[in-house]
Design brief:
Number of domains: 2
CATH architecture of the largest domain: Beta Barrel
Structural class: alpha+beta
Strand order of the largest sheet: 2-4-5-6-7-8-9-13-16-17-18-21-22-25-26-27
Number of helices: 3
Oligomer: single chain
Helix content: 10-25%
CATH topology of the largest domain: Porin
């Protein structure tokens, strides 16, 4: 407003000067001078009025600016207060806000969320020795040289390892979490289905269980069919975090300790750092009974024909106590990486009817497991093992649990199982793995006197005849009790597409397996081997 005021004053002064000059030059009368004075005073009054108006406008502008500055400061303060209030929202309120947002990653129905999973697969297998097996190899059934199929290769295409999974979850309270999880595939076969290791009846249930989690207490209860607690975990003692070898072979690798069977499990975690778990699991016993006849005084029953709900062509072992597994897991941070360490114990009771009385003998074992991210996100290492008596059914090679002495009494067979492997995450799309494993049993040899000489009983008896194992058409028997099964395997998984449209992956695996027998009469110890090549094409849509 200063330029405007100056302009008005200047114009007024100019007018006064001009009037004064004009009055003097024309020499007007005194009346004219009075009139001139009056006009000058009027002009001065106008100037003063204009000045007051300019000053009022300037004051109004200053007030408006001050109000604008105050409003701006209030806005900044309000924004800061809003940010502070948002940061102070309680976690449970924030959780409720997140829960109210639209969900698209799961199916929601009556307060329960449903997550679908699984894959469609086409897989191929070529074996140099015919095991007459689908995608799950029979490591302890690799044929010796005397068997005709041991001289033929085996090529199969299969879609039966395709899998369907579903996870249902609900939260009845802020502390309690309920869940149900199931996995199905199509590798079951009616007459060969049994309870030995994977309870693989048709349709084949891999796992199917319900679970209750009490978050505040760190307590977890599981009931249903799941991986045995002897299985190596990848995280704590948590279902669906088992550290399974990434093989295409559905029987995995000799030396890998596992079963999938009905169980009741209770787990307690301490701040997700230390876990303790106990599981009661479905019992089943695998036997080896020698071909030597028992004396007539021995009246032995160790199994019974399958009844209701089972295939009548099968038999089931006598059992009266569940297998019991207890495990402790610990996950410390070492050199900026989380290391998983676990130790477990297994108790088993073997049961028979011998000479009109019930007999039982105890067995079991102990094991350890470790997995370490050697280079976090790039290279993972895992190792696991178990040793004990009567643990054969818990190994991928499915060796024998127990045998019998000359009096028909059960004798658990000593065994060790071990597995080690590396997995390289070469890129987000490529994983490469190398594993080696072994399962080895000790001889349980027993002798009797038939009146005509010494009679051999048990498992791995050096008096057993193996001469018929040497070649096709060889004379003599081929007892061939398996002493050790060992394997080395390598493979890769390549994922060309992995995103919102699901994941497509292609894999290949090669394995070399040897099955070695105990030496029999004459020191003959037959060996069988098998080279296997697998390929897999899988689409994971969910």
């Amino acid at each position: 407003m200063q330029p405007t005021r100056s302009l008005i004053i200047g114009a007024s002064l100019g007018a006064l000067i001009n009037l004064a000059v004009t009055s003097g030059a024309e020499a007007k009368s005194s009346d004219d001078a009075k009139e001139t004075a009056r006009q000058i005073q009027a002009l001065r009054d106008q100037i003063d009025a204009l000045q007051r108006k300019v000053d009022a406008q300037a004051a109004a502008e200053q007030q408006t600016k001050a109000q604008a500055d105050a409003a701006s400061a209030q806005a900044v303060t309000a924004t800061a207060s809003a940010n502070a209030a948002a940061a102070a929202i309680p976690s449970q309120v924030q959780t409720a806000i997140e829960a109210a947002k639209p969900k698209t990653d799961k199916i929601y129905y009556k307060g329960v969320s449903l997550t679908l999973g699984g894959y469609g697969a086409l897989e191929t297998i070529y074996r140099t020795k015919n095991e007459t097996a689908d995608m799950a190899s029979s490591f302890s059934g690799i044929p010796y040289p005397n068997n005709a199929v041991g001289h033929t290769g085996e090529l199969r295409f299969s879609a039966r390892q395709s899998r369907i999974t579903a996870l249902a979850e609900g939260d009845p309270t802020a502390d309690v979490h309920l869940s149900f999880y199931g996995e199905l595939d199509f590798l079951g076969a009616a007459q060969t289905a049994n309870s030995n290791e994977t309870n693989s009846y048709t349709p084949r249930i891999r796992v199917m269980y319900n679970q209750i989690d009490w978050a505040d207490e760190g307590l977890h209860f599981l009931a249903g069919q799941n991986w045995s607690l002897v299985t190596l975990q990848g995280k704590g003692i948590t279902p669906r975090s088992e550290d399974i070898p990434p093989t295409i072979d559905a029987q995995y690798i000799p030396g890998f300790s596992f079963t999938r069977q009905p169980q009741i499990r209770i787990t307690k975690d301490f701040d997700k750092l230390f876990w303790v778990g106990v599981s009661l699991e479905n019992p089943q016993t695998t036997f080896y009974t020698s071909s030597t006849a028992y004396p007539k005084s021995v009246n032995l029953t160790d199994n019974a024909p399958a009844g209701s709900g089972f295939n009548s062509a099968n038999t089931l072992s006598l059992n009266h106590i569940p297998d019991v597994v207890a495990k402790v897991a610990y996950e410390p941070v070492v050199a900026d990486r989380t290391v998983h360490l676990e130790v477990f114990g297994l108790y088993r009771s073997f049961y028979e009817r011998l000479n009109l009385e019930n007999q039982n003998v105890n067995g079991g074992g102990a094991g350890v497991g470790l997995n370490v991210p050697v280079i976090p996100g790039v290279l993972d290492f895992q190792v696991s093992g178990m040793a004990g008596k009567g643990i054969g059914r818990y190994g991928a090679a499915q060796l024998v649990d127990v045998t019998f002495n000359s009096a028909g009494a059960m004798k658990p067979i000593s065994e060790i199982q071990g597995l080690a492997g590396l997995t390289l995450h070469a890129s987000p799309a490529l994983d490469i793995y190398v594993f080696a494993g072994e399962e080895k049993e000790s001889a349980q040899a027993y002798y009797g006197n038939s009146g005509t000489g010494v009679t051999a009983y048990g498992y791995g008896n050096p008096l057993y005849v193996n001469s018929g194992c040497a070649y096709e058409g060889a004379p003599g028997a081929c007892t061939g009790n398996t002493r050790v099964v060992e394997q080395g395997t390598a493979g890769f998984w390549y994922k060309p597409w992995n995103g919102k449209s699901g994941r497509y992956q292609v894999g290949m695996q090669y394995s070399y397996t040897e099955r070695k027998a105990f030496a029999g009469a004459g020191g003959l110890d037959p060996i069988a081997n098998d080279s296997m090549v697998f390929a897999s094409f899988r689409y994971y849509p969910f």
